[in-house]
Design a protein that fits this description.
two-stranded antiparallel sheet; 276 residues; Arp2/3 complex 21 kDa subunit ARPC3; mainly alpha
Length: 276
């Protein structure tokens, strides 16, 4: 039978036309539902829009270690104003042709920074640990700026002269010391995370004490070279200072970092296992 100019769609089998009509109706229903959701969301207050979207929770260990890390960044510069003797370890200095070993007390805070960044790398990966080091510049720079502002503000007339002079001496660090601290922090902490993560890639999860100790020792050597050179080169001879500081920091890294590393990693894993 001749079809003439009858549209081809009218010649489709009845079952096919029904399926096409059903699919079109389903698409129309979906479009109406989507439009209804959009308009309903617009009617909500701005403060509650998008609250149905799941929020990725920060692991408890990362949250706790990050807070601790920020505190150590701020206090390290203050502690560094005091030189401390190392007790029996001070006798190692003459063996290397220098005087009795002594370090600025800030080394203890910096070793904790090394431990925390390595613990974060162990628990959450090197990329997360490097972001932590990067975020650490915020409290570091803010604390330096605040120290400078407080140093410039006039002291109260009622303040004890001895206390006034002492705090002015503590807060009145030169720009070279501040610059050396910022540069040494960024490079040495990044190096620590990089070495630790590289060793983990080679050794796996084993030998945590060795990975932490090696990364800490190498990063502290670089930290000492950078800080002492930037802060004091040309002011006085720094050769003996460099040797003494390196020996002291290497010794402390080898003794303190491995056990502290196990402690912080165990604490982090316990926090992550704790029920909400």
């Amino acid at each position: 039978m001749a079809t003439g100019n009858v549209p081809t769609g009218l010649l489709s089998p009845p079952g096919k036309r029904k399926r096409e009509d059903a699919a079109a109706c389903e698409r129309a229903v979906q479009l109406r539902a989507t439009a209804a959701e959009v308009f309903a969301d617009r009617e909500k207050p701005a403060s509650v829009r998008g609250m149905d979207t799941p929020v990725r929770a920060v692991p408890r260990s990362l949250f706790a270690l990050s807070i601790f890390y920020g505190g150590m960044v701020c206090i390290a510069g203050v502690l560094g104003n005091k030189q401390v003797s190392l007790g029996p370890l001070s006798a190692l200095g003459p063996w290397f042709g220098v005087g009795p070993l002594a370090v600025e007390a800030g080394i203890f805070a910096f070793l904790l920074l090394v431990v925390v960044s390595s613990a974060v790398a162990e628990l959450h990966g090197g990329a997360t640990a490097n972001r932590l080091v990067l975020f650490g510049f915020v409290p570091l720079v803010v604390s330096i700026v605040l120290s400078w502002i407080v140093h410039l503000l006039p002291a109260s007339p009622d303040m004890q002269p001895a206390n006034r002079d002492a705090i002015q001496l503590v807060l009145g660090a030169t720009w070279r010391i501040w610059l050396g601290g910022i540069i040494a922090y960024g490079i040495s902490q990044t190096l620590n995370v990089t070495i630790f993560s590289w060793l983990k890639g080679r050794e796996g999860a084993s030998l945590l004490w060795l990975r932490a100790g090696v990364a800490s020792i190498l990063s502290q050597i670089v930290d000492t070279l950078l800080f002492a050179t930037i802060a004091f080169a040309g002011v006085f001879p720094i050769g003996e200072l460099l040797i003494g500081q390196m020996i002291a920091k290497v010794t402390l890294s080898a003794i303190l970092v491995p056990p502290l590393m196990y402690l912080f990693v165990a604490l982090g894993r316990r926090l992550d296992r704790a029920p909400a």
